[in-house]
Amino acid sequence: MSSLLLWLIAAVILLLVFAVYYWRTAALKPELVYQNNDENRNMIGRLPRLTRRYFPTPWMINTHAQLIALGFKKGLGKKLSYEKSEQLTMADGGTTALHWLGLDNADDKPTLLVLHTITGSPHSMRGFMRDIYQQTGWRIVLCQRRGHGDLPLTVAKFNTMGDSGDLREQIDVIAERYPQSPLYAIGISAGSGLLVRYLGEEGEQSKIRGGMAYCPGYNIEHAFGRAQDVYSRMMAKKLLKQFVFSHPESFSGMASYQTLIESENLHELHQNIYECAGFNSLQEFMDAANPMRVFENIRVPVLILNAEDDPVCHIDNAWEYKEQIREMPQAILAVTRRGSHCAYFSGLTAQPWAHQLAGEYFTELAKAAD
After folding, report:
1. What pLDDT is recorded for position 291?
2. pLDDT for position 12
């Protein structure tokens, strides 16, 4: 038997072993957690991605491979020209911004608000913005937070988790401009905490009719301490550079400044960021920013998506609230075996599975409301 034939046989065996491993451990149906009622069953029935196998891109079944690919996509992806970008002045003089797509839609067409990641910017969010616009055809608006991207920090205040007061002001601007447009929102990673915070604070008075929390971290008192060390350190360093070291004149006089700049990971940073967010103590910060303090007060439909292999938002964060989610009549938690953190590349062509799910969910949510 020739050596070439032996190599071919070995390659076929390895391929078969990988195929079995992939089928049995990676390409699985999402695990769903929800209250068993008509509304939830009907929604799940209209979203086949929730009841079929999620096929992660075969050469990206490793969580780190998905994140590396996501980094390349953000860095090398196509440019996106927003149809309109505008800065808003908040009540205290702080600066936020709105970035729009789909402005030629009818006034009564739904509007989807996108709440970005912990270091998100119009540039880093362009892939999601393009995908969700193509999926829905709606009016899409990215709600940029203080100090993110190129926004000036006009007031010595920022919050990595976002400020529900700022979001409320942004929503008021959007609702006043399009009073006939139903409003929906998706929060991505840290943005999901801001979304939950708003929905829980507003309860039945929410101007947002439905939302999606994409790779949320849940209880921020514990979540940051569970992130894998390499990512936690990397993100903490990036946050300090973006918000603190670039504005020493704004924060260096604060009592917590020295401890803050010595933070080596996300948990340490968020234990010492309270003054930068405008609070006198860590307890005040947690009371105002932790989304799980108001989670059970949500009164609109919410789809939550997490991956078991997420190295940033550990799956234990989700499992702690499994029973609480089951008690909420309009909440659905979908947990996939793979997907990493806000990556979810799928199939041989690395399609954005989670973006497609989001587009389908909001489309069906709007249909159900008609």
Report:
1. 98
2. 83
Alpha carbon distance 154, 88 (integer Å): 11
Quick: pLDDT tens for 139-153: 999 999 999 999 999
- Check residue 76 and give its pLDDT: 84
**Domain boundary assignment for the chain:** 28-219+290-369
At 98, list the tokens.
């709105």
What pTM value is reported for the model? 0.95
Task: Tell me what pLDDT residue 8 has.
Answer: 81
Instruction: List pLDDT tens digits, range 156-165.
Output: 999 999 999 9
User: Which CATH entry fits the domain spanning 28-219+290-369: 3.90.180.10, 3.40.50.1820, 3.40.630.30, 3.20.20.80?
Assistant: 3.40.50.1820
